[in-house]
Design goal:
- This protein is an alpha/beta fold.
- It has one domain (1-305).
- It has twelve helices and five strands.
- Strands 3-2-4-1-5 form a five-stranded parallel beta sheet, with helices on both faces.
- The protein starts with a helix and ends with a helix.
């Protein structure tokens, strides 16, 4: 099966409710929603008192360590070593430019279950005992964190959660194979490339990845393929797959960021794979709690160094 599909399948089993409990739950939800609508009318406006907004900069990146866990792969001969020049100088220029944002909170795309490990590594780095590995969470997150005097780097990554019908699909080798075949066939028909070109400039690459049109096109992909896959005409197999694989995952990431303790004067820097911006940026832009800040002016400064 395609490695991308396998990666996003969660095998956690959900405790099943009895039919009676399901029916009672639906009844209580209906009544609660009815009472809420009766009290508030049909309009959901802003809070009476505006919430203090915290600035958040979302810096989308490619994965510096090339884990090759996504659909788009990078061939070995096209992978760069960010520990070499001129890439190290570029990373330092990016870090100096982003530092002008004056972040007080830094969050990275690492599973929340690794928080204790990241805490330990960051303390070692601050003490000068941890050479930075290739990952962007280290090269940018740890580096900028130290420059900004931040005492903690927050892990916010989370897997999505699939519906039971998707678990059943991936447990069935024949059904999973048909899904995988569709996945590959549509990409070929649309002319999508399966390999990433070699990065010649990290600054230029990040500048392009954070462009609004690039982010919009990326979301369009998630609304097209394999979103439209149907096992039977009229079903929602592809919709359910993307709901758990991508939309639910990013909502969980957003919730993890909401959980970070913060004050009105804090400024958050989020370093994340650029693909996540297609949902996270609209979430932050619409939120009452956050003010979205583009990294593009800062990356432009880095380009001019």
């Amino acid at each position: 099966m395609n490695e991308e599909l396998v990666r996003f399948v969660t095998f956690a089993r959900v405790e099943r409710l009895t039919f009676k409990r399901r029916k009672n739950m639906k009844t209580w939800i209906f009544l609660a929603c009815s009472l809420l609508l009766a009290h508030a009318g049909t309009s959901f406006g802003q809070p009476a008192e505006p919430l203090p907004q915290v600035q958040i900069m979302t810096l989308g990146a490619f994965h510096f360590s090339y884990p090759n866990l996504d659909v788009m792969q990078t061939r070995a001969e096209d992978q760069i070593s960010v520990l070499d020049e001129p890439y190290q100088s570029e990373i330092k220029a990016i870090s100096r430019a982003i530092l002008e944002f004056e972040p007080t909170i830094i969050a990275i795309e690492q599973p929340t279950g690794r928080q204790a490990r990241i805490d330990s590594l960051y303390l070692q780095y601050l003490a000068g005992h941890f050479p930075l590995p290739t990952g962007e969470q280290y090269q940018l997150g740890f580096r900028i964190g130290k420059m900004a005097g931040v005492d903690k780097i927050w892990c916010i990554d989370e897997w999505g959660r699939h519906y039971d019908n998707l678990q059943e699909l991936f447990d069935d080798e024949e059904r999973a194979s048909r899904f995988d075949d569709y996945f590959r066939q549509v990409r070929q028909e649309l002319g999508f490339q399966d390999t990433q070109p070699k990065v010649t400039s990290i600054i230029d690459e990040l500048y392009n990845l954070n462009q609004l049109n690039q982010i919009k096109d990326n979301l369009a992909f998630y609304l097209f393929h394999p979103f439209q896959y149907e096992e039977e005409p009229g079903d929602f197999t592809g919709v359910d797959f993307e709901t758990g694989r991508w939309f639910n995952r990013n909502l969980r990431i957003f919730r993890n960021i909401q959980r970070i303790p913060r004050g009105p004067d804090d400024r958050i820097l989020l370093i994340v794979g650029a693909g996540h911006l297609n949902l996270l940026n609209p979430f932050f832009d619409a939120s009452w709690e956050f003010e979205l800040v583009s990294p593009l002016p800062y990356l432009e400064k880095a380009r001019l160094e």
